[in-house]
Amino acid sequence: MSFWLIKSEPDAFSWDEQVANGVEPWTGVRNYQARKNLAAMKAGDRAFFYHSNVQRAIVGVVEIVREAYPDPTATEGAWVCVDVRTVGPMPEPVSLAQIKADPALAELALVRQSRLSVCPVSAEHWAYLCRLGGWVEPA
DNA sequence: GCCAACGTTGGC
DNA sequence: GCCAACGTTGGC
C-alpha cells in the first residue's frame, strides 16, 4: 500500500464537503507530475487531505476507492482523476508550520515541492504524521 | 495583496 | 533546443 497527500483549497473544495459527500471524484489536476502520482494510486491506498491557502494543514484521511480514469472535467488533454472516500478527520490537524518546523519531515514532498498538488508520502512519514495528528483508526 | 517558485508557451 | 515572457500556485 502506498500513501499520498492531496491538496485542496477549502474555498474550492473543503474537508467538510468531502465528509458530506463520502466519495468524491478528485478532478481538476492539470500538472504532469501530479498526474503521474494519480496514475500510480491503487485502490486501498490512503491519502492525507490537506487544506492549502487559507488553513494550511492536514485535516483528514481518505482512501482511494477507484483508480485513475479519464477526468470528465478535462476539455482537452489526457488528464485523469481518482475517486476518494472519507475515512475520518485528523483529531488534531497538522499545520504546515508544524511540519516545516520538524526536522524529521524536511524530506516531505509537500515541503520540498510546495506547488505539487498530489504528492507521495513515505510509510515512515505517514506513521509520523498520524502520530502528530492523534490519528486513531475508525472502528 | 505580494512575491517566489515553477511550469508552460512561443520566438528564434 | 534554448531562453525569455508569461501564467499559476501557494505561502506569507
TrEMBL record:
Coiled coil location: none
Residue ranges occupied by any EVE domain in the UniProt entry: 3-131
Gene3D superfamilies: ph1033 like domains
InterPro entries in alphabetical order: 5hmC_binding (IPR052181), EVE_domain (IPR002740), PUA-like_sf (IPR015947), THYN1-like_EVE (IPR047197)
Protein name: EVE domain-containing protein
Domain of life: Bacteria
PANTHER family assigned to the protein according to its UniProt record, in alphabetical order: THYMOCYTE NUCLEAR PROTEIN 1
Pfam name, any one: EVE
